[in-house]
Amino acid sequence: MTVQTLQAAQPFSRDPDWWRGAVIYQIYPRSYQDSTGDGIGDLAGIVKRLPYIASLGVDAIWISPFFTSPMKDFGYDVSDYCDVDPMFGQLSDFDAVIETAHAYGVKVMIDLVMSHTSDQHPWFVESAKSTDNDKANWYVWADAKPDGTPPNNWLSIFGGSAWQWSPARMQYFLHNFLTSQPDLNFHEPAVQEALLDASKFWLERGVDGFRLDTINFYMHDAELRDNPALPTDQRNSSIAPAVNPYNWQEHLYSKNHPDNLKFLRKLRALMQPYNAAAVGEVGDAQRGLEILGEYTAGDDLMHMCYAFELLSGDKPTAEYIKDVMDQVDDVASDGWACWAFSNHDVVRHPSRWNLSDDAQRMFTTLMMCLKGSACIYQGEELGLAEADVAFEDLQDPYGIEFWPEFKGRDGCRTPMVWESSNQNGGFSTADKTWLPVSADHLSQSVAQSEADAGSIIHHYRCAIALRQAHEALKTGTCSPMSVDQGCLVFTRAGCGEELYCAFNLTDDNATLEVPVGDWQAIDSAVTEAAPQGGKLNLGPWQPCILQRKLT
Ligand code: BGC
Ligand code: MG
């Protein structure tokens, strides 16, 4: 396709540090825009919507997996790392995504799922045939215990034992997720080589970076030791829902293997000449931030790690956020976090935290002021709530397994709404879309939101623009945070300026003392509060950002 007619929204940055403080827009391709009328979003649909994405002012997109897949976990089960699934288009459509995004100054990050493949990947098909084929050691195979039960007590996040029996090999194989997602054996050098080759394939095609799925699951304990049980008071449901016994174990041996770092170093070295950046997902209910620190330390591992702390079930208080940021300073002082409130795995945050409109706005502004990079999940900019999906419409096997105590991830994956009056909200012309468009979302479509000066999309644009206008918010230092009357207060400094950031995370008024200094109002619609005589009155859920020059 030709992109000559496109006007670049922002210049394409060649800065190798572009990822620091970047705002990344996450696209779940099945649900973004269908261009073929089959009820499933696709790559050509993303191309169509890139002008809109660029208009939000984001630095990059992260596209959830679009590779060849039987779609048991909707693309997180890959059967060919180097091709596009026909339902999403073909390689030339991906080239058009890159070309168009770059013309708009937007970087493209793709989601590499390397810890496991689909059971339909030719590697697994071969590996599963016998104990002596070429790929016999490419997956994690183990004999049964003498009583026929699995080799150890490891659990799958999606329910039950992490081991599945294979009659052909008379052995068990490991799967941390679905039984159809066998775990690759990273102790086998040929596996690492094959995955590095796949990564190189996409770097050569022009991607600017990777979101790396579950990087702390890559290697397992070669001795297959049992995981210890966690005391009841240490069971934490930040990774798996509370009804999932996965939370009852400390995953000491099934993940976080020290040799993960060796592979990540190789991957980083491969990425270096391309100026590509990686954000690695590190899920761990006990040691999440510590691992984030470990995996992003120095300059030869991950650029950033995706943190789960703000994907929490409970609405964050000022104390909670201070505690998280203090921990980051403590265990990841040399590292880099990437924050998100919503994604394709959790209940959309306005519903999860039961947020008022003001609170939603405040959290958005806060995200843009936090040290780290930031991910926005499609539809978040419209303020969408979690969709209610009926049992008969469920697609997510995780939800089907744990229904109704945990309804799975379909409620955050329903299609994007573009136009309120159009069939399927402008997402698709199909009679039936893969998940139903939420009727409750229609009044918040992009078209309707754009036309309404009071809608949250305009706030998202302002908050993102604020971050883009102040380098201190992207790459500057952050002072230790303090909490006063439920308000979170900190300063960011860099590039000749200091920003005072205060956020009222309560339903009450607060009066704060602004530190002495020549603080000026900033030129942004996200904040209206201004101090008088050194006192700052903040209404419920009100932010205030002030600036001063540093000499
Ligand atoms: C992804 C999930 C996926 C899982 C297994 C995750 O962390 O975000 O959507 O089901 O990895 O690949
Ligand atoms: Mg389609």
| Radius of gyration using CA atoms only | 23 Å
Low-confidence stretches: 1-8
Number of strands: 21
Read across the widest sheet, the strand sequence of neighbours is: 1-2-5-9-10-11-12-13
Q: What is the 3D shape?
A: globular
Beta fraction of the residues? 15-25%
- Spatial separation of the terminal alpha carbons: 50 Å
Mean pLDDT: 96
Total helices: the number is 13
What fold name goes in the CATH topology slot of the largest domain? TIM Barrel
Fourth-tier CATH superfamily name of the largest domain: Glycosidases
Give the C-level CATH assignment of the largest domain.
Alpha Beta
Helix content estimate: 10-25%
Would you tell me the structural class of the helices and strands?
alpha/beta
Bound molecules: beta-D-glucopyranose, magnesium ion
Tell me what the CATH architecture of the largest domain is.
Alpha-Beta Barrel
Quick recap:
The protein is α/β, with parallel strands linked by helices and 551 residues long. The chain has helices at residues 43-55, 91-103, 122-127, 189-204, 260-271, 288-296, 318-331, 349-352, 357-369, 397-402, 446-451, 456-469, 471-475; strands spanning 23-27, 60-63, 67-68, 80-84, 107-112, 141-142, 163-166, 171-174, 209-212, 277-281, 304-306, 337-340, 373-377, 477-478, 482-484, 487-494, 497-504, 510-513, 520-521, 535-538, 543-549. It has two domains: 23-119 and 187-469, TIM Barrel; 477-549, Golgi alpha-mannosidase II (Immunoglobulin-like, Sandwich).
